[in-house]
């Protein structure tokens, strides 16, 4: 069984690399013909990143690998997500606001957490009417990261990334500090009235 999973993982890895190659070719065509294919490139990058996320989770669970926990500036992390998502959201008429009240650094796997937040913002972008809010706050001994939108909420539209949410939940739990585990919570009625994705890290 493990051998079969390793073969499938290898195939996913190759497919991810081919997608990135396709994105490079499209970028070259844009420059050569002076056309805007940014949304096509975004879709390819989104697919490739989701494959990367699947591979990362597989490696962590299959080989009991440890997260790369390092102190990370939370404000920088939020700014990175905003930079990655704002152009695409703006093209759809959606604004992304940042409310980072966590001023210190926090021990976490920066790449994985950034990826989880990017995925959450992308999902929110499928449902939001006009606004998405990314916030961060320290509450007691937890860092709480929220992605909220002004859409209809969970359960009222078809899921856009069930696999991404399942992986996010499992990766959140792998964040452990003083025997406390991270967690993921989904709810409706957030600050903007729609869905709320809440990541809690110890």
Task: Describe this protein's structure.
- The chain is an alpha+beta fold and 202 residues long.
- The protein has two domains: 2-62; 69-201, Histidine kinase-like ATPase, C-terminal domain (Heat Shock Protein 90).
- The protein has helices at 2-33, 38-62, 74-91, 110-127, 162-173; strands spanning 69-73, 95-100, 105-109, 131-139, 142-149, 176-177, 180-181, 183-188, 195-201.
- Strand 4 (131-139) and strand 5 form a beta hairpin.
- Helix 2 (38-62) crosses helix 5 and helix 4 (110-127) packs antiparallel against helix 5 (162-173).
- The longest helix is centred in the N-terminal third of the chain and has 32 residues, at 2-33.
- The chain is globular and about 55 Å long.
- The mean pLDDT is 82.
């Amino acid at each position: 069984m493990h051998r079969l999973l390793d073969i499938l993982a290898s195939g996913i890895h190759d497919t991810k690399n081919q997608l990135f190659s396709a994105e490079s070719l499209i970028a070259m065509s844009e420059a050569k013909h002076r056309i805007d294919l940014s949304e096509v490139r975004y879709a390819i990058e989104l697919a490739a990143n989701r494959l990367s996320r699947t591979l990362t989770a597989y490696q962590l669970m299959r080989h009991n690998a440890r997260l790369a926990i390092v102190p990370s500036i939370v404000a920088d992390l939020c700014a990175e997500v905003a930079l990655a998502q704002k152009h695409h959201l703006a093209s759809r008429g959606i604004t992304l606001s940042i409310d980072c009240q966590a001023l210190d650094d926090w021990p976490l796997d920066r790449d994985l957490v950034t990826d989880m937040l990017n995925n959450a913002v992308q999902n929110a972008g499928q449902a939001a009417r006009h606004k998405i809010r990314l916030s961060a706050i320290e509450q007691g001994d937890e860092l709480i990261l929220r992605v909220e939108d002004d859409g209809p909420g969970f359960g009222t539209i078809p899921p856009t990334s069930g696999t991404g949410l399942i992986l996010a939940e499992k990766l959140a739990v792998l964040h452990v500090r003083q025997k406390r585990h991270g967690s993921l919570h989904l709810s409706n009625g957030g600050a903007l009235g729609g869905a709320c994705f809440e990541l809690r890290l110890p």
